[in-house]
Amino acid sequence: MQGFFTAPSIVWGPGAIEQLSALGAKEVLLLVDREVHRHGGERRTEEELAKTGTHVVRYTEIDAEPTLASVERARAAIGSLAPDWIVAVGGGSTIDTAKALWIRLARPDLSLTDVTPLLELGLRSRIRCAALPTTGGSGSEATWSIHLTDDAGRPVEIASRELVPDWAVLDPAPTLTLSARRTAETGADAIAHALEAIASEWANPFADAAARQALAILVPVLPKVVRRGDDVGLRGEVQIAATLAGLAVSNAQYGVAHALARALGSALRRPHGSLVAALLPYVLEFNFPVARDRYQPLGSLLGAASVQSRGALAERIRQLWRSVDLPLTLGAAGVDAASLAPVREGVIAAAHRSPGAVANPRVPSPEELGRLLDAAVAGSVVDL
């Protein structure tokens, strides 16, 4: 036996939200992203749950970069509520907060840092979970991990196969209010998921298939949806692709671009999508000498010439980023040399101990991670 492929039940397309009235839920903890709540984006969710008389308690104080402390604040605010379902409406931060609360409510005897992939949690004996992504990128609705930050600004990753939501509900309607910038950033995150899953040392045929299909959709569609954000069809395609990329990276593992982006995001509170977009071309250059055989079959999706050399592959991704106005360097993403300097060693250490560094096709040393960071800040060629 070589492994397992873990996925939620998935419903997609306009009207997919109607699946919520079939959950049979009695008491729901509804977590809603602040921005989604500002637009009333949870209204349809509440209407569907009301069809079966479900009692709903809504919580909207979700941090953009959730922390261990913000999860505990949410847990305290919920009080004695005993839901049989948790429903998350939002992006990756909201869905990750929901997963963390799932553990804290179903297993109050455990702290989040007690959880390991080998620990049996028994979450579904008490509570089940549904996720309605309102962005097209994080893929958290299909993954078995949680990404938080601790009090010292260090990334905390919690993983258990029990954390895959029971349902991923991909209704494009809530994504229509997403700004062009956030659409580009979250789409870049999904593209990075797919490319890192394909090159991962833990890649497998099932994850590869999901990652390739995600790229086949996202590479041509992302520039279109950034320009035409009111197109429900395009929004739906991106949403499906993001979930496919989430399935791929969850079952194969991310790489150094995500490891560095998460460490930087925890330390400096910069948008994850911009950070991973800025880092990805440099990591592709770093990986190419050992991952050439993994990248070259992508010629039919990225262009044959773009997969012939490390520079050509990195430039192909930069070309895509230019088309959606994403930063090409960490400096352009708000991380210049001066802001990096105080946190640089901590970021390197956090990235080096990340699962993404271990699964990366070329396992980097701390020195190489530092040189990658410096190249991405300055916009210089990676020659490692």
Model description:
The structure is a single chain. The protein has 384 residues and is of the alpha/beta class. It folds into two domains: 9-175, Rossmann fold (3-Layer(aba) Sandwich); 180-378, Dehydroquinate synthase-like, alpha domain (Up-down Bundle). The protein is built from 15 helices and eight strands. Helix 4 (92-106) links the parallel strand 4 (85-90) and strand 5 (128-133). Helix 6 packs antiparallel against helix 7 (232-252) and helix 8 runs antiparallel to helix 9. It starts with 8 loop residues before the first strand and ends in a 6-residue tail after the last helix.
Chain-averaged pLDDT: 95
Q: Give me the number of helical elements.
A: 15
How many angstroms does the end-to-end distance come to? 36 Å
CATH topology of the largest domain: Dehydroquinate synthase-like, alpha domain
Largest sheet: 6 strands, parallel
Note the topology.
Elements: E1 9-12, E2 27-32, H1 34-38, H2 43-50, E3 55-59, H3 68-78, E4 85-90, H4 92-106, E5 128-133, E6 145-149, E7 155-159, E8 167-170, H5 180-199, H6 205-227, H7 232-252, H8 256-268, H9 272-295, H10 299-302, H11 310-323, H12 337-340, H13 344-352, H14 355-359, H15 366-378
Parallel strand pairs: 1-8, 2-3, 2-4, 4-5, 5-8
Antiparallel strand pairs: 6-7
